[in-house]
């Protein structure tokens, strides 16, 4: 291996930018301390080191066996190193791929903590933390996903036995896509329609044992298993499962009853507020924007580092150019880097609001922040998944032919991001919820101009008070764009009351995206990338800015594009490298081999190719024999038989 510094190392050394300044903005001190403790352990553990090497050659069963081994190893390391609860969760989320018990932590335990009574929490949470109980969250059904009210699984209460009978009325009622259910989980929190003597009361949560604690085989009345491989080879270490229930009986105390209750005689006591049970359910959705940002951060870090080392074509008498210096490469990758930063920052702000809401909801029954968190989490989930998923694919394409190789690693990041556009609510469906809330607010303002609005809704006062947009304020441009879309949609809703929200779903998606852009740009801290992200957002929104009357001339369009290009050109390559360093990614966290921090790309590619070369492995002889059969075909002549 050459001892000369790589192009990546040379570019890094040319910058005086201090990555520490930005690292402290991207992660909390506790997160950074946990990572500093965990990464040296996990990255050098042989089992975790093998993950990316074995993945492309494994079948579905082999991937799940490896995933279960990873889960077990994490528990063992937790015990060996006495990790705190917080450190253990950080270790779980450090994995590049979702693993079977990840949703046990992120969608099962957190819901028990938020919706279980004190007695239920005291009973179940210790079992969850010890992993005696391994759970999953079962909501989606074969025939119903985003429409929770349309779920068909029934929980019928029998006062004579003080039990619920849980059943799936038909094939279409089978729970589907449930992460962790396919193989790992032995319990499930099941969303089912509560049925008591006085009638049906909508969806509620029920704790259902799935598998025997001694054999792990399904319990009576339970049909449960794995649904198989997913698109693009994504989520290959997650055992998404199905569940069909046939007259499964559970005790009354297995219904989570912090907010709504059923008494032993079957009397239903509703929650004080019909949205109380919803607060904890947006936990996963609230985490998606920052997750999308970090996924894009990994993809763009790999691409920028690779393109810094990659050289192609030369001016006469000069050495070949670094691909990163092509205008077409910079104009793709630098805005993507800014986008990653923006969604990480916005995601952190959203999570902060979420935790304030959850504390108020759980401890005081205060639902004040819930509507805003619901709208923000939905809008940001929509926009972050729509921006960051294709962003990772663009990063891969910027790497040229080698980007298509598994050695580049970006393909696995894209595969992990892609389903975010449809899980936790299909983007076009939950956009309608965002639009409905914003339209309701603007109609309220027309009746009561002094009505109080959530902070993130405040800009829509422009729709009724006619304030002029400051022409030098880019955030105000985005306000005007969102308000323009909102007014048009509100007028359509008022003019056509017979139309359903699905008829407005296209316009709703545009409004949700515009609302998210306002929040993201408004929460940008001062970094070398902030202006670039704002300008890139405006350029992408040019048609709607024209419709809103914010941009009205060809010269203004050209000026905006020129401002974005100037913002890209103002970033030196060294500073860009340092801004990727600020993510503090360990090489182990970057899939593939071309994004390592030392820039040794080609040596690692050849080394890995030799390790992966199937012609040198156990199948080599058989592969050569079959290849010879092809090249010798003509020599066999008429003796060859079908």
Residues in β-strands, percent: 5-15%
Number of extended strands: 13
What fraction, in percent, of the residue positions are helical? 40-55%
Pick out the low-confidence regions: none
Query: Number of helix segments?
Result: 24
Mean pLDDT: 93
Query: What is the overall silhouette?
Result: globular
The CA-CA distance between the termini, in Å, is 51 Å
Which class of secondary structure composition applies to the elements? alpha+beta
* Radius of gyration of CA atoms, rounded to a whole number: 27 Å
Largest sheet composition: 6 strands, mixed
Ordered list of secondary-structure elements with their pairings:
Elements: H1 7-13, H2 19-26, H3 29-43, H4 46-49, H5 51-54, H6 60-81, H7 85-93, H8 102-115, H9 118-130, E1 135-138, E2 154-158, E3 163-167, E4 175-178, E5 187-196, E6 199-209, E7 222-226, E8 241-245, E9 248-251, E10 261-262, E11 268-269, H10 283-309, E12 311-312, E13 321-322, H11 327-364, H12 370-398, H13 410-417, H14 427-447, H15 462-465, H16 474-495, H17 505-522, H18 530-540, H19 542-548, H20 554-569, H21 573-581, H22 601-612, H23 620-631, H24 633-636
Parallel strand pairs: 1-5, 2-5
Antiparallel strand pairs: 2-3, 3-9, 4-8, 5-6, 7-8, 10-11, 12-13
Helix pairs in contact: 1-21, 3-7, 6-7, 8-9, 10-11, 10-12, 10-13, 10-21, 11-12, 11-18, 12-13, 12-14, 12-17, 14-16, 14-17, 16-17, 16-19, 18-20
């Amino acid at each position: 291996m050459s001892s000369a510094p790589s192009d990546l190392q040379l570019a890094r050394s040319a910058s005086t930018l201090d990555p520490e300044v930005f690292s402290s903005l991207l992660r909390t001190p506790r997160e950074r301390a946990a990572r500093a403790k965990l990464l040296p352990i996990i990255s050098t553990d042989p089992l975790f080191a093998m993950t990316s090497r074995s993945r492309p050659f494994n079948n579905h069963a082999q991937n799940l066996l490896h995933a279960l081994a990873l889960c077990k190893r994490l528990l063992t390391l937790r015990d060996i190193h006495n990790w705190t609860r917080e450190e253990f969760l950080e270790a779980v989320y450090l994995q590049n791929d979702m693993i079977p018990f990840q949703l046990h932590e992120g969608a099962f335990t957190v819901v028990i903590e938020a919706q279980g009574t004190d007695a239920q929490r005291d009973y179940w949470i210790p079992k969850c933390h010890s992993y005696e109980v391994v759970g999953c969250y079962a909501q989606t059904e074969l025939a119903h996903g985003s429409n929770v009210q349309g779920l068909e699984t029934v929980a019928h209460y029998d006062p004579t036995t003080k039990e619920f009978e849980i059943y799936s009325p038909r094939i279409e009622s089978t729970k589907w896509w449930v992460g962790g259910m396919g193989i790992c989980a032995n319990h499930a929190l099941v969303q089912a329609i509560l049925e008591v003597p006085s009638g049906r009361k909508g969806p509620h949560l029920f704790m259902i044992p799935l598998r025997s604690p001694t054999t792990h085989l399904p319990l009576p009345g339970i049909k449960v298993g794995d649904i198989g491989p997913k698109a693009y080879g994504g989520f290959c270490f997650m055992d998404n499962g199905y569940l069909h229930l046939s007259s499964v009986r559970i005790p009354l105390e297995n219904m989570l009853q912090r907010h709504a209750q059923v008494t032993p005689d079957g009397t239903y006591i509703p929650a004080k507020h019909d949205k109380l049970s919803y607060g904890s359910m947006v936990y996963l959705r609230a985490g998606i924007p920052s997750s999308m940002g970090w996924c894009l951060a990994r993809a763009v870090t790999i691409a920028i580092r690779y393109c810094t080392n990659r050289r192609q074509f030369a001016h006469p008498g000069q050495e070949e150019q670094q691909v990163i210096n092509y205008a077409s490469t910079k104009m793709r990758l630098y805005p993507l880097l800014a986008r990653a930063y923006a969604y990480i920052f916005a995601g952190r702000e959203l999570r902060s609001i979420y935790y304030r809401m959850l504390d108020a909801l759980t401890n005081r029954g205060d639902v004040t922040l819930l509507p805003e968190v619901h709208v923000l989490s939905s809008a940001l989930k929509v926009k972050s998944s729509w921006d960051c998923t294709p962003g990772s694919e663009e990063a891969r394409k910027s790497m040229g032919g080698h980007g298509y190789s598994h050695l580049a690693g970006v393909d696995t990041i894209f595969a992990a991001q892609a389903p975010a556009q449809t899980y936790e609510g299909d983007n076009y469906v939950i956009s309608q919820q965002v639009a409905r809330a914003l339209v309701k607010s603007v109609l309220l303002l027309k009746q009561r101009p002094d009505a109080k609005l959530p902070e993130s809704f405040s800009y829509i006062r422009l729709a009724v008070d006619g304030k002029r947009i400051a022409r030098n304020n880019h955030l105000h441009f985005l306000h005007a764009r969102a308000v323009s879309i909102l007014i048009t949609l509100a007028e359509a809703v008022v003019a056509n009351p017979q139309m359903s929200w699905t008829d407005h779903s296209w316009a709703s998606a545009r409004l949700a995206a515009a609302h998210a852009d306002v929040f993201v740009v408004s929460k940008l801290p001062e970094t070398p990338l902030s202006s670039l992200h704002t300008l890139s957002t405006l350029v992408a929104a040019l048609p709607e800015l024209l419709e809103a009357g914010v941009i009205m001339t060809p010269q203004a369009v050209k000026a905006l594009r020129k401002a974005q290009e100037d913002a890209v050109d103002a970033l030196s390559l060294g500073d860009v490298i340092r801004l990727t360093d600020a993510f503090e990614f360990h090489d182990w966290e970057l899939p593939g081999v071309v994004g390592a921090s030392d820039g040794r790309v080609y040596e690692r590619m050849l080394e890995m190719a030799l390790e992966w070369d199937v012609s040198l492995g156990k199948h080599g002889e058989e592969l050569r024999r079959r290849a010879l059969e092809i090249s010798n075909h003509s020599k066999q002549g008429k003796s060859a038989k079908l």
